[in-house]
Amino acid sequence: MKDEKVYILLEDDTEIFGNGTGHIMYRMYLPVVRYVEILKTYNARSTFYIDMAHWLFLRDNPEFEDFSLQADLIEKTILHLLENKMEVQLHLHSQWANAKIENGNVRVTEKWNIGQLAEDDQKRLFLEGSKRLQEVIATSENQNSFNSFKAGSWGLQPFEALYDEFKEKGVKIVLGPTKGLKLSALDLDYTSMESEITPYYCRKDDINRIGDKKEIAIIPMTPTYLNWIDLIRYVWHVKFHGFMERHDKDMDIYGVPDEILNMNPVANRDSIHSLRMPYKTNLKMNKQPYWYLKKTFKRAYNMVLKNDFEYKLIVLETHTKDFKNVFDDIDRFIGYLTKNYENIEFITTSDLLRHINEGELKPLLKSDS
Fold it and tell me: What are phi and psi of 208, to 5 degrees?
């Protein structure tokens, strides 16, 4: 079993904070440059999902502070990734639609699930964001096809308004849906997802259900968990570092009102589910310590190996915006994976699509369920 090939899809949500705070240089460009060097050291690749909704907001407000510079930095980040043979795809945080600048501060909306927007706003955001992303990709010598979408805040419910737009523009792969995730503030409910680990073709009228058409494949976020001992250790780590870190140490959010800094409708995203798996979440690499990354990966790896589905896939979600103090942990962790898991292979969403087209990956269809 341990000799089976296991594919690792590293996918980064390349963005600033959901509440609209943070600077592109500090939260995107510089962390991405450093992270790419680590990945190249271990011959690893990642798909970076660029928040083009933020780019659209910057474009529409070029006279405010240095927004023109920040919009340019997003494009430079895209080009840097392509030049280093990484992949870029589309990410959209819908709170940027209808965001405003008031009293010298950016105020995003509370609609963090794109499905909460009016249908016309959903389509505009997708069409304009994908158009600009593809225009930037076209200027690079190293290009990848546009084929994938990652939902901001994991939210893509309801899906009907965007389904046909995705089909028309060539989006074949969608990430974000996570079995068991329910966020009332976002009108988001993935508790009835029919597949927890295995990719599946979804229905147009219900992203949770396995469909009967080979059109758009959902790649579920890979689950993992901490046991009670690890949970206590992690809570202590978070509390200690939260106490030691002060907002005024971060120059890009210094002086931002607390009401903006504290805006977070996904704050309860992780919760205690059972005594056996008290901290169930999706596999991630943000600002967690090295020991956390090792343990959660091992549990996800074992879970995927035990899955009956022939194609073994692990989705590891990352957020470079959180990397500023943990590059040593990330370097150690990627090195640990390449040394201790000889059967893994890092892939991109274009590799996934190729595997689908070649028949190696066969997402679940209604007839298979």
Answer: -75, -20
